[in-house]
UniProtKB/TrEMBL annotation:
Source species of the chain: Devosia riboflavina
PROSITE patterns reported in the protein's UniProt record: MFS
Domain Major facilitator superfamily (MFS) profile: 1-379
Primary location: membrane
Name this protein carries in UniProt: Major facilitator superfamily (MFS) profile domain-containing protein
A Pfam family this chain is assigned to: MFS_1
Gene Ontology, cellular component aspect: plasma membrane
């Protein structure tokens, strides 16, 4: 999970700087490439999620997706052109992007099989390990990008995917780590589709997650350019922004782990959307890096909730289908990437990054509202039956 975190932490803060500033793509073309990858990634993720619940050994999918990551980001490093960036991000990374979700699906199934009482705890703990990579890597990657070559961040990601592949290859040598969930039992007379059913409240929650995460994507794509262009910062500041946010996330996740025993996940996620809206909205009117750094307290709290509470929320979506449910994390992320990249392309065509952030704040509010109004009966404190 740490190396999986490195693959994101080394590259995501710099994607728009590489595509737009370094390779010379227009914001609109960059957004189109990212959107195309998102569309394909949605289909790939659902397919792999369904397959993972059928395969006798789900570790094979983690290995395959990690190999795709080696190829995609290795291609950008070895062949740094607009064409390689387009091929990697639109065609290969949709497969590699499923590695994150399939790792969590494997962890969930392993602990449900061997130690069910620890399953939720271990998923949360490993999400914190993922976050540790975001504390360590972005400042280091920012320094390397500024002092040497920005494409080195893709080398770091490719090597990290190689580490994930090596770890799972070693796991496959141990038969005890081969686990799988039994298929869900279909009620007598019920159709096959009934085993894939999603309640309306869950559908609303997933839609709200997509919209709130899209606001975060608008932030992710816009803020590096905003820091460099509007706040007078540097590429190194971009790395510190990501690292500081992650450092705040880690203790916030501990707080959220406690709050999930008191409040429903829907309540926490809707509140997270409002916190993100406050951060993005206030950031859009700032004029100095110093003030921006102080504001990262809000960013860390909101991001921690949307990136940790969402995991058990999504994994419970389709009963008895952990792999397919977990793949919905990828679907949410990919759909959000599609919306966020499209919005980024439209909103920043004239180079107005402040306006893009203002719209991002509004999008976060809309997502929180969808989550809240679609789950009114689920808002508030946990009921006794749920808590036990």
């Amino acid at each position: 999970m740490f190396f999986s975190g490195v693959t994101y932490a080394a590259t995501m803060p710099y994607a728009s700087l590489v595509g737009v500033d370094t390779l010379g793509m227009s914001p609109g073309w960059f957004a189109t490439v990212m959107a195309a990858g998102s569309i394909l990634g949605t289909l790939v993720s659902l397919t792999l999620g369904y397959i993972s619940d059928k395969l006798p050994d789900r570790r094979l999918l983690v290995l395959a997706t990690a190999l795709a990551g080696i190829i995609a980001h290795g291609m950008i490093y070895v062949w740094p052109t607009q064409l390689s960036f387009m091929i990697a991000m639109a065609l290969v990374m949709p497969v590699a992007g499923a590695c994150y979700g399939q790792c969590f699906a494997y962890v969930r199934v392993y602990y449900v099989t061997h130690d069910p009482k620890r399953a939720d705890f271990m998923v949360t703990a490993l999400r914190m390990v993922f976050t540790l990579a975001w504390i360590v890597v972005p400042p280091l990657a920012g320094w390397i990008a500024a002092e040497f070559d920005i494409f080195n961040v893709y080398l770091a990601s490719s090597l990290s995917y190689a580490a994930v592949a090596a770890i799972f290859a070693l796991l496959m040598a141990d038969k005890a780590t081969a686990v799988q969930m039994p298929p869900p039992v279909r009620a007598e007379g019920a159709s096959l589709l009934s085993t894939f059913a999603l309640p309306l409240g869950t559908l609303a929650g997933l839609a709200g997650l997509v919209v709130m995460t899209a606001a975060m994507r608008i932030l992710t794509f816009t803020v590096p350019l905003f820091i460099v262009g509007d706040l007078g910062g540097t590429v190194t500041d971009v790395g510190f922004y990501a690292g500081i946010t992650a450092a705040i996330e880690a203790p916030c996740m501990l707080l959220l782990a406690y709050l999930t025993t008191r409040w429903t996940k829907e309540t926490l996620l809707a509140a997270a959307g409002l916190v993100m809206a406050a951060f993005i909205g206030i950031a859009s009117i700032l004029t100095s890096m110093a003030a921006f750094y102080w504001l990262l307290l809000l960013n860390g709290l909101g991001t921690a909730a949307l990136m940790s509470v969402n995991i058990p929320y999504v994994q419970d979506a389709i009963k008895g289908r952990v792999g397919l449910s977990t793949s919905l994390m990828d679907v949410v992320a990919i759909a959000a990437n599609l919306l966020g990249a499209t919005a980024f392309g439209l909103l920043t065509t004239g180079g107005n990054y402040r306006f893009a952030l203002m719209v991002g704040a509004g999008v976060a509010v809309v997502g929180a509202a969808i989550m809240a109004f679609g789950n009114m009966s689920r808002l508030g404190e946990l009921r006794t039956a749920e808590a036990t």
